[in-house]
Structure formats: C-alpha cells, structure tokens
Amino acid sequence: MWGARLVGFVTVCEDEVEQVYVVGPARGTGVADALLAAAERAVAERFDTAWLAVAVRNTRARRFYARSGWHDVAALHYPAEAGATPVIVACRRYEKRVR
Description:
The protein is 23% helix and 41% strand. It has two helices and five strands, in the order E-E-H-E-H-E-E. It has helices at residues 31-44, 59-67, and strands at 8-13, 16-22, 49-55, 71-80, 87-97. It is globular, with a radius of gyration of 14 Å. It starts with 7 loop residues before the first strand and ends with a strand.
C-alpha cells in the first residue's frame, strides 16, 4: 500500500501512450500494470489501436510491454523533446489493439 504518495504516472496523447513512469521502489508491485491499463482505456475511447515508443536498450520496459500484450512492430526514430531541439532516440514501436 502506497497511501497518498505519488509513485508513478502515465501520459497519453491521442493514440500514443507517451510515458509510463514508476519510481524504483514501486516497480514490480502492479503499479505499472494499473497505469498502463488506464492508458489503454483512455486510448480506447477514441482509437482502435494504441502505440508507444520504447528505447531500444530499455530491455526491462520492452519485456513488460510484451508481457502486457503489446507487439513490437517496427524500428522508430523517436523525436524526444529536449528544449528547442528534439533529440532523436532509437526506439521500437509497440502497438496494441485496445478495442
């Protein structure tokens, strides 16, 4: 039980799950599962398929998404916001049918 402490967040923009973040001590407790499920429900209100970008080297996240029913569908050069100039990050595009 985490009480009233903030231990994670998720952001959704249109059909993209932009960010899923959970603090270290809360990882493996089901918080990420709950956040991802909420994001999937939000996308499903308007879209059939959700997508997200995962950095190629983030193997922990890639395993989590695969276990959660997401599918690695393509390489993606993702423009991450970093001030005035985006930074291009080598990612994999994951998708999941949400309705």
